[in-house]
Amino acid sequence: MSENAFGRRQALRGAGIAAGGVAAAGLATAAPAMADGGHGNGLLGSWMCVRQDTGSSDKIRLVLSFAGGGVVLSHDISPAGPPFTGTWAAQGKSFRLTMWTGATGNQGPGSVGPTIRVRAWGSVSHGRLTAKYQVTVFAPMSETQVIDSATGTVTGRRISA
Question: Which CATH entry fits the domain spanning 8-30+41-158: 3.10.20.90, 2.40.128.120, 3.40.640.10, 3.30.420.40?
Fold first, then answer.
C-alpha cells in the first residue's frame, strides 16, 4: 500500500452502512402502510440498524433512510461516522443500494483522501430489515484502485415518528 493508504480499521469503521448482526431496540408502532408514507413498498422512511463486518465483534449503530426518487442516506451514530448518500431500488420486499462517502486524507484537513462505496442487498419482512453489504475503499482520486474491502450484515427496525 502507498503512503496515502487509509487505515483499514478507520476506513471500514467510517464506512457506515446498514449492516450488522443484531437488531437495535425500538419497534415501530405504525401500521406498515402508514410507516412508509402510504406508498406500500415497506422501505420508505428511516430504520434504526446495527451493522457488523464479517469476522469482527464490533457492532455499529446507524440510521438508514430510504426516500422517494431512489435516494438513500446512511449515518453511523454510535460510534459516529460520516454520512453516506446514494441510490436504491426495490423489487417486491427485496432491495439493493449503492452509497458513497469520502474521507479526509492522512495529510490532515483538506487533503485528498479515499472514497468509500457501499453496496448492499436485502429485504424487509415482518417489520424487520435485513441485508448483506460490501464496502470498497478506493485510493484518493480513483474509482478503480481498491485499497481495502470488507463484507458484513445489517439488521434493523423502522423508527416510528
Answer: 2.40.128.120
Q: What is the spatial distance between Cα 33 and Cα 3, in angstroms, rounded to a whole number?
A: 51
For the chain, the domains span 8-30+41-158
Contacts of 105 (CB under 8 A, 6+ apart): 4, 111, 112, 113, 114, 140
How confident is the model over 35-85, as pLDDT tens digits? 444 444 589 999 999 999 999 999 999 999 999 999 999 999 999 999 999
Dihedral angle over CA of 139, 140, 141, 145, nearest 10:
-10
Q: Is 18 helix (H, G, I), strand (E, B) or coil?
A: coil
